[in-house]
Amino acid sequence: MAYILKHWRGELSLAISFWINVFLINIGMRIFEVWLTESSPIENPVLASQVVITYVFVTLAIVFPWQIIGLWRAANRHAEETKNGILPGSVKGLAVLSVLATLGNLSISWSIYKDTYQIGFGKDEYGEYRVEVIDDGSLVHLTGGLGFGISKEVGRLVDNNPNIKGIILDSVGGRIYEGRELSKIILINGLDTYSLKGCYSACGSAFISGNKRYLAEGANLAFHQYNSGANSFDPYINIPSEQKKDLHIYERRGISQHFIDRIFATKQDDLWYPTVDEMINAGVIHEVVEPSTFKPIQYGSFNASELEEVLSNIPAFLILKKHEPQIYQQIIKEMEAKMRKGASILEIQQVVSGYIQLIASKALPRTSDKALISFVRETINILKILEEKEPIICMKNLFPGQYGPLEITKYLSKEQMTPMMDAMSLVIVDSYKTSDNTKIYTADAEELVARVVIELGDDAGYLETKGLQNREEYSRACNTVIRFYQLILSNNNKIAGNGLRYAFSP
């Protein structure tokens, strides 16, 4: 302490003040900085950021002022004692340059310090998460972002609940570090992994680490290139190297190389949603299961008559009850059975959708041109709304077998769905009216479809929806389907009706 005070007061010689307290100490601090940024064993980004900010604060607020002020005072003292101001003046000049250089460096690095402080001491943008034990202590359910600290909470729950066999990962992603830490916990404990709602970005490293991997109907996995979490870090973080670390996890789990090559092919601000078949064939998931398999819903008391009362408020179901009473009763019966088993809204919607598709497959080819055209126009309107919200939502609606079924009531209001229900009602009603106008002229229809495909040009390839990788391609695929229908409707009703009837025929 005495030595520190002597330097501060300028009582040490100018040589010691400069060469020891400034020059050598700065070299030592530089060595520490290199170790801290390149060789430090601290893996936790929060702790590392706290150490960096603390070091910067101590350096700039305490050490640097102590060095410069002590050196300045020692120079003044040396000038008074030697009556020679050349050397002290030179030292003071170096001190001024040092201050200016430090201020300049602080200005240049301010954004880095700001982002580092945010990670170490600020509120985490992915910090809204929840972790709980469910299913009588056999499952952990993680929801929300992968914020700093989430892996510790999961680890604590797993340690305190020895009966845990798996973890449900419902996350939009977040911190790469936390995804890796979750991966370690899952691997060490041999846990199975599930996703009810979806597992995106950094969450994928945790999901793929599961012993057995299950995806609920309607849920998706999604991948894209990593980012540093702050623009100021980009020049200092080797993103490809970080991605390669996590690709090793996929390789060790036996995932196909073709799939691995696509994981980080999509840009940082986009997402690739692999299809169910792509994931099963690549070994990413073992099975698609119903959501209620591992998290049933408690609906309380109800009976079939209450379900029928709800359906009676929907005109399309009243039409169905009149023309297809057996199917109508079967729908109610299966809805009741599903609800008693704790089925999700999506599962119940799937029951209804399955029967609607069955009815539609019979009704559309034999309904009137007017009903067909009305139905397709409303289909186009629905697809446009969904595509504007997010292209992958449109794709899920068009191709539920590939991208998982869509809980459509989450994305469409009653007012938006009513015209489609009315159009479907008209399809059913008109399909029971006998008419010679429902005959399909196959040659004319095939010629129309061929003309439409030619007019679509290169976009016609998107009708097959193979190998789609990003938002732009999902959007083009959805809009190609929309344009396909629009081109058919651009003809007169008779030609359009015949073409649509052909398209909807088995």
Automatic annotation (TrEMBL):
UniProt entry keywords in alphabetical sequence: Membrane, Transmembrane, Transmembrane helix
Gene3D superfamilies named in the record: 2-enoyl-CoA Hydratase, Chain A, domain 1
Highest taxon of source: Bacteria
Stored InterPro entries: ClpP/crotonase-like_dom_sf
TM region(s), chain numbering: 12-32, 52-72, 93-113
Name of the protein in question: Uncharacterized protein
